Amino acid sequence: MGDILRSVGVIGVIILAVWGFGKIFTTDPGDPVKPVDYAQVVQQARPAASFELLAPSSLPAGWRANVAQFEPDAWRLGVLTDQDEYIGLNQLKVSVDRALARYAEGSKAAGTAQVAGETWTVRSGPKGRWTYVRTEGGLTTLLNGTASRPVIERYISSLSAG
Fold this sequence. Notes:
Number of strands: 9
Number of helices: 4
Strand content: 25-35%
Order of helices and strands: HHEEEEHEEEEHE
CATH topology: Phosphorylase Kinase, domain 1
């Protein structure tokens, strides 16, 4: 029995030494989200866009953009709020059904909302996600996020085409 206890003790000391070494020489990665300079992407994309590309002139304190992608028929801007809630803006030259299938799968109709003088169809999705969608002239604008409805609606109000 003494040999077993000594062996367990030696193994325990080795495990503690490895753990301590790891704690000393391991750094905290910090915020894993890499901010994106969306304003620069917007400035370059607007002249090339065949539609009115929407974006906020600035983000509230603590918010950061993590996705800004432009293609000839699509614009995507993803932001994280100061509470790390996600809001994704997608403008696509596709039907509402295709946009919903891609970005709001599993969502259900939850009425409409008047935001910034526009009528938006609101959908609720799994895990507390909200989707706001409207279509005009073949362009579907869809906002999808985990933030609360008031936060998403304030964000929509901040969007402009210029």
